[in-house]
Design goal:
The chain starts with a strand and ends in a 38-residue tail after the last helix. It is about 10% helix and about 30% strand. The strands form 3 sheets. The chain has a 6-stranded antiparallel barrel. The chain has about 300 residues and is mainly beta. The chain has one domain: Trypsin-like serine proteases (Thrombin, subunit H).
Length: about 300
C-alpha cells in the first residue's frame, strides 16, 4: 500500500482533540526512539534550513500545528511537497488556511524559540501529477526573509550527490514507528542513495506505485529500519551538502524492500529559481487530492529523508 508523507487530516483532527491518532498505514514497527524511522535527535541550529509547515487552526496546538516538512532554498523561499497543500491534507483549499506558517529555527515543536513566518504565496509545480506523485514539489514565498545561513543549496543535473551509494540524510518531525507515534523534536536518519534499477524493481508499477527516474530519486537502508514516514512529507533529503530530494512517497515505513521515494530536485531547479518574483497568492494553484503519504485522510505520499550532518 502506498503511503503519503504528510500527516493525515483525520489523524490531525484527532490530535487536535487531545486523543492519540490512529495510524492510516500499517507498517512494520521500528525502534521507539526514532522519528524519521531509525533516526536520532538533531538540533535545528545545526541544520537551520529544515523547517516545519504548521497550522494550529487545522492541526491543533499539541505539536505546534505541524503537518509537513520543508526546506529553505532562498531567504524568503521554502520548498515542500505539492501533496502537502492538497485538500486531502488541509481539509480544504490552501487559501482557506489563514494561519499557514513556516516554523524555522525550532527543534521542539512545542517550544517558543525560532520564528513563525506567514506564507505570502504558493506555487505548485505545473508538471505535478497527483496520481503518480511525479514532480511532487511546491514553492512557498514567505512574508519575511531568513538569514543566509538558513539557505541550503540545491543539486543540479549531473551532481555527484545523486550517484548510487552516496550517503544522505533525511529530516523530520513525523511518525517514529509507522503506528502514529509522532515526534515532538527534530530527528534525522542516515540513508543511502540507491540506483534507479533498484528503485524500479521495488516499485514496478503495481498498487504500490511506479518509480520514475526522471522525476524521482529513492534512498534507504539495506537492512531496513531507516526511512521517512507519515508527517515527514516535504522534508529534505540531503547529500554532500546539497538538497537532492523532498520526502514524497513509499510503501510502509522502514521496510528493507521498500525504500523511500523522493522528488528529484535537479529537473526542477529552473522552476524554483525562476519564480523569485511574481509568486501567485496562496491557493491560486490548488494541487487537489493526492493519494500517498499524508497525515490527513487520504493525503499524499509519506516518506522522508534527512540532509547534511546526521549523528
Amino acid at each position: 500500500m502506498r503511503r503519503p508523507i504528510a500527516r493525515a487530516l483525520a489523524g490531525a483532527l484527532t490530535l487536535a482533540a487531545g486523543v492519540a491518532a490512529a495510524p492510516l498505514v500499517q507498517a512494520p514497527r521500528a525502534a521507539a526512539d526514532s522519528v524519521v524511522i531509525g533516526g536520532k535527535p538533531v538540533k535545528a541550529g545545526e541544520s537551520p534550513w529544515v523547517v516545519a509547515l504548521a497550522s494550529r487552526d487545522r492541526f491543533g496546538g499539541t505539536r505546534g500545528g505541524q503537518f509537513c516538512g520543508g526546506v529553505v532554498v532562498a531567504p524568503a523561499k521554502v520548498l515542500t511537497a505539492a501533496h502537502c497543500l492538497g485538500r486531502d491534507v488541509l481539509g480544504g483549499s490552501v487559501e482557506s488556511v489563514r494561519d499557514l506558517r513556516v516554523v524555522a529555527g525550532r527543534t521542539e515543536l512545542g517550544a517558543g524559540d525560532g520564528r513563525e513566518i506567514p506564507v505570502r504565496g504558493a506555487r505548485v509545480n505545473p508538471e505535478y501529477d497527483p496520481t503518480s506523485n511525479a514532480g511532487d514539489l511546491a514553492v512557498l514565498e514567505l512574508t519575511e526573509s531568513l538569514p543566509a545561513h538558513y539557505v541550503l543549496p540545491m543539486a543540479g543535473a549531473g551532481h555527484s550527490a545523486y550517484a548510487p551509494g552516496t550517503e544522505a540524510a533525511v529530516y523530520g518531525w513525523g511518525d517514529t514507528s509507522g503506528f502514529g507515534d509522532y515526534a515532538y523534536a527534530l530527528r534525522a536518519a542516515r540513508v543511502t542513495v540507491l540506483s534507479d534499477e533498484t528503485c524500479a524493481r521495488a516499485y514496478p508499477g503495481d498498487l504500490s506505485g511506479q518509480y520514475r527516474a526522471e522525476s524521482m530519486v529513492c534512498a534507504g537502508d539495506g537492512g531496513g529500519g531507516k526511512d521517512a514516514c507519515q508527517g515527514d512529507s516535504g522534508g529534505p533529503l540531503v547529500a554532500q551538502g546539497r538538497l537532492i530530494g523532498l520526502v514524497s512517497w513509499g510503501r510502509g515505513c522502514g521496510r528493507a524492500d521498500s525504500p523511500g521515494v523522493y522528488t528529484r530536485i535537479a529537473p526542477l531547479v529552473s522552476f524554483v529559481t525562476g519564480s523569485e518574483s511574481g509568486a501567485q497568492p496562496v491557493g491560486v494553484q490548488d494541487p487537489g487530492s493526492t493519494p500517498g503519504r499524508a497525515s490527513g485522510a487520504g493525503a499524499g505520499p509519506v516518506t522522508g529523508h534527512p540532509p547534511a550532518q546526521v549523528p
